[in-house]
Amino acid sequence: MEVLAADIGYGFTKVVSASRVRVYPSVVIPKLHTHITVDIDTGESPDIVSYGNTEYLYGSKAMRFGKKSQFPPRHRCFTQSNTYAVLLLSALSLVRNRNVYFVTGLPVSVYENEGIKTSYQEWVLNILRPHGAINIKVLPQAMGAYYDAVLDIQGKPIDKNLLMKKCAVVDIGYYTTDIVVLDHLDLIYRETIPLGVSIACEFLVQELSSQKEISMHEAEMLLRGEKLFICGKPVDVSNTIEAAKDRAWNLISTAVTDRIGRGEDFHFVIPVGGGAVLYRDKLAQLFKEAHFSHNPSLSNAYGYFKYGIRQIRKGSKDA
Ligand SMILES: Nc1ncnc2c1ncn2[C@@H]1O[C@H](COP(=O)(O)OP(=O)(O)OP(=O)(O)O)[C@@H](O)[C@H]1O
Ligand SMILES: [Mg+2]
């Protein structure tokens, strides 16, 4: 059996298998009936999946097809949308096996609603089972990052003492910031705050509108350090970018410190999500005991993967 882990966020889909890791924008559009393209092979993957009776493009390719193509709207029903179904199916591009243990996560606030969790699980299984997923496990989203921090690649605890310590995970995503607190392995506090990096993107779109109309995706690329080009020429907008980052940081950090202070109550705080890459220095200053993984934006997906490996190992021992 092969483990496939997917962290499907509002901004980005992060997928991990034993041999590959993929990150792409959570953008999905129906494929045009007649896809006209230049007949030169660039080696780019086709990024197309069928769902229902329709073929869809996803990821960066979908993004390119229209300036207005957007990240999914912030909506409670995201996890039951066609976009989400296509992103689930897109994860299967990482595995050849038809014997897949699929691990994913739900926001903590949704996870604890037993009814929603069960119907979500059934829905996911219905979509993936015909393609080979035979087992599905859903974890609370930020718990992935916890497993990533405490388990090694074989799913074994790195340090048993570490497991008993009180710690917090702060997952700064595109639309949301999730906080979970664990003590002696129990999840003792959780909250999903509706604030994320998209605030900085919205600010940039607005502030730059007199110079160039940019999409949320283009704003997001500027935050990551890409240059703004107007008529093919680079334009320095670094001050506006810093102001956008600061605006989002002020809101997010205030909301986080209101809940967990500066981490004084914990042995360590694990900052994750793309926001932890963007605000690494500020987070390191805010929390004295900040533990960063080698790739915070992938921590949840890596953790789901390690969890899956652990379950398979346990299963084979029990057998
Ligand atoms: N490597 C990176 N460097 C800089 N910024 C990044 C990086 N990766 C992601 N980000 C920023 O962090 C934001 C959030 O990314 P992340 O993948 O955590 O969001 P998400 O999981 O899709 O969102 P949500 O958790 O709200 O559903 C991105 O929109 C991007 O602006
Ligand atoms: Mg996320």
Name its key features:
24% strand, 5-stranded mixed sheet, Nucleotidyltransferase, domain 5, globular, ParM/StbA family protein, MreB-like_C, 37% helix, 319 residues
Description:
This is ParM/StbA family protein. InterPro entries: ALP_N, ATPase_NBD, MreB-like_C. With about 325 residues, this protein is of the alpha+beta class. It has one domain: ATPase, nucleotide binding domain (Nucleotidyltransferase, domain 5, 2-Layer Sandwich). The protein is about 35% helix and about 25% strand. It has twelve helices and 14 strands. The protein has helices at about 60-65, 80-90, 110, 115-130, 145-150, 160-165, 200-205, 215-225, 240-260, 275-280, 280-285, 300-319, and strands spanning about 1-10, 10-15, 20-25, 30, 50, 55-60, 100-105, 135-140, 165-170, 175-185, 185-195, 230, 235, 270. The strands form four sheets. A five-stranded mixed sheet has the order 3-2-1-7-8, with helices on both faces. Strands 11-10-9-14 form a four-stranded mixed sheet, sandwiched between helices. The chain has a three-stranded antiparallel sheet with strand order 4-6-5. A hairpin with a 4-residue loop joins strand 2 and strand 3 (about 20-25). The longest helix is centred in the C-terminal third of the chain and has 23 residues, at about 240-260. It is globular and about 55 Å long. The model has no long low-confidence stretch (mean pLDDT about 90). It binds adenosine-5'-triphosphate and magnesium ion. Magnesium ion binds near residues 9, 171, 173 and 273.
